[in-house]
Amino acid sequence: MERTRAAVSVVVLLAALGEPKAEETEHVDKSQYTLFNPTPVFLMRKLMTDRPHFTENPSTVDAGHVEIETGLFGYALARPDLEGTITEDFLVVDTNIRIGLTNSAEIDLILLPYGVVNTRPFDQSAAFRNSGIGRAQIRAKINLWGNDTYGEPGSTMFALLPFVSLPTVRTNGVSPTFVEGGLVGFFEVQLSHMFALELNDGVLYLRDDLASTHHTEFLTTANFEAEWTENVVTYYEVVYQFGRNDPLGDIVFFGTGVQYLLNKNLQLDGGVNLGITPAAARINPFVGISARF
Fold first, then answer.
1. How big is the CA angle at 270 (ends 52 and 113), to the nearest 5 degrees?
2. Taking 90 as the threshold, does the pLDDT of residue 282 lie above it?
3. pLDDT digits (tens, 9 = 90+) for 234-243
4. What is the value of pTM for the model shown?
5. CA distance 21 to 72
6. 108 neighbors 100 (Cβ within 8 angstroms)
7. Nearest in space to 53 (alpha carbons), one of 288, 291, 292
8. Rounded-to-integer distance, Cα 135 and Cα 167, Å
9. Could you tell me which residue, 20 or 50, shows the higher pLDDT?
10. Which of 1.20.1250.20, 3.40.50.720, 2.40.160.40, 1.10.238.10 would CATH assign to domain 22-292?
11. In angstroms, what CA-CA distances link 108 with 95, 176, 265?
């Protein structure tokens, strides 16, 4: 009996040593981990995805790990433009592949494998449909503080994200025609154990058509999150894109949705964006999934 008790004690001790508690790993120096020297599983941060909300968070993927965030399906119905034309967008498997390079930096590749754009002029006989591969975007997220200290009420984190969007098939009516880019700053504050606030501000370098040149637009967003349980989070956000060369004016929309954590590395989500201004899509529902490896 004594030998059995001793054996059990040794097993418990080894298990405790091999799986440090969360509070024991919060302030561990993880700067030595890289793409080729991955962060140990027991030192990884909690899953914090950039989707489903438009507002993104400042947290990066742990070094040496990959996070795939996919919009399984999305739909956007635009308001009529000045000529009465209405467009519908269907997005299928819009995917963001996030790769952790260091403890505070990641690189992202966003690709829309397939999209459909239905264009319905006032004269319905002139309606047409485009389909095919959409835009490709390359981004780098750099966390400046808070990656491993965020979580308690009052804590904050901040990151910068430069990006460039590239055309794929310029003539298919789904891919953008021009190279575009920008720089966005991400800030987040933990208001309480239940509530958090995310703010994004950015400068976008865009081009509308062949008749115009590249110009600067500005983006600002605010996202309020409520963590009801360890598995369920809801969000409520406002997005404002201004400085546009568009007769319909600025884009303003309200978004809301829910995230459901199946396990520490797998999350389902769904939501909807509702346009407030004429330039914003009237309605944009979507569902998605995110997985970390």
1. 65
2. yes
3. 999 999 999 9
4. 0.88
5. 35
6. no
7. 288
8. 5
9. 50
10. 2.40.160.40
11. 10, 19, 18
How far is it, in rounded angstroms, from Cα 217 to Cα 277? 16
Contacts 24+ apart (CB under 8 A), 3-8: none
Plot region of 243 (φ>0 → left; ψ -120 to 50 → alpha; else → beta): left
In order of 9, 11, 46, 115, the CA distances from 14 in angstroms are 9, 5, 24, 52
Mind listing the pLDDT tens digit for each residue in 170-214?
999 999 999 999 999 999 999 999 999 999 999 999 998 877 889
Q: Give the integer Cα–Cα distance in Å for 258 and 230.
A: 13
Query: Residue 52: is the preceding peptide bond cis (ω within 30°)?
Result: yes
Q: Per residue in 284-293, pLDDT tens?
A: 999 999 999 9
Sequence-separated (6 or more) residues with CB below 8 Å from residue 21: none
Buried b (16+ CB within 10 A) or exposed e, 161-171: bebebebbeee
What pLDDT band is residue 1 in, cutting at 50, 70 and 90?
very low
**H or E element: which one contains 190?**
strand 180-190
Residue 26 has pLDDT above 90, yes or no: no
What the block records as the tokens of 22 is 């969360």
Is the sign of the CA dihedral 189, 146, 64, 21 positive or negative?
Answer: negative
What does the pLDDT read at residue 263?
A: 96
125: helix, strand or coil? helix
Q: Give residue 25's pLDDT.
A: 45
Which residue matches tokens 């954590």?
261
For the chain, give every domain's residue range: 22-292
